[in-house]
């Protein structure tokens, strides 16, 4: 089975990325060249994250990718728990509506934010039905 889930994109994190890039352009005297350079720079920085952050289930491996920076592979058979979190820690997640995945005998974790949380959890549980799910949604808890 091969299934890809895109990251949910949250408005707060988009603003946190865009504001430091665009603020100098707003507060400095208007310069068309500076504005163009700033917009190009913002696009070059933001687009790889927006389009390159995804979570792919391939066989029994969860591949977590965030632009060209983060590449994490997790054996789904070693995942013990998936739970909802709003932890703002740096993670391959573009939203604060996040899920924490605990794996490797509870010693390791990764935080992600798939857009389709229910489908993502169902795909994980189809491979490893021993995964404990908490707080992802009321429907997920009752179905799983």
UniProtKB/TrEMBL annotation:
**Which species is this record about?**
Chryseolinea soli
Its lineage opens with: Bacteria, Pseudomonadati, Bacteroidota, Cytophagia, Cytophagales
Q: Which residues form the Uncharacterized protein YyaB-like PH domain?
A: 53-128
**InterPro entries, per this entry?**
PH_YyaB-like (IPR009589)
Sorted keywords for this record are: Membrane, Transmembrane, Transmembrane helix
Q: Quote the Pfam families the UniProt record gives.
A: bPH_4 (PF06713)
Q: What is this protein called?
A: Uncharacterized protein YyaB-like PH domain-containing protein
Q: Which GO terms are recorded in the biological process aspect for this UniProt protein?
A: bacteriocin immunity
Q: Where are the transmembrane segments?
A: 9-27, 33-51
């Amino acid at each position: 089975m091969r299934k890809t889930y895109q990251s949910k994109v949250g408005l707060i994190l988009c603003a946190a990325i865009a504001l430091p890039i665009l603020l100098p352009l707003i507060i400095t005297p208007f310069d068309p060249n500076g504005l163009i350079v700033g917009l190009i720079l913002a696009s070059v920085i933001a687009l790889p994250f927006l389009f390159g952050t995804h979570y792919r289930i391939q066989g029994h491996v969860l591949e977590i990718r965030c632009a060209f920076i983060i590449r994490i592979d997790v054996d789904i058979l070693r995942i013990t728990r998936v739970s909802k979190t709003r932890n703002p820690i740096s993670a391959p997640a573009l939203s604060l509506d996040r899920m924490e995945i605990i794996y490797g005998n509870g010693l390791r974790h990764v935080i992600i934010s798939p857009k389709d949380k229910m489908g993502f959890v169902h795909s994980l549980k189809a491979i490893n039905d021993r995964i404990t799910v908490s707080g992802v949604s009321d429907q997920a808890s009752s179905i799983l």
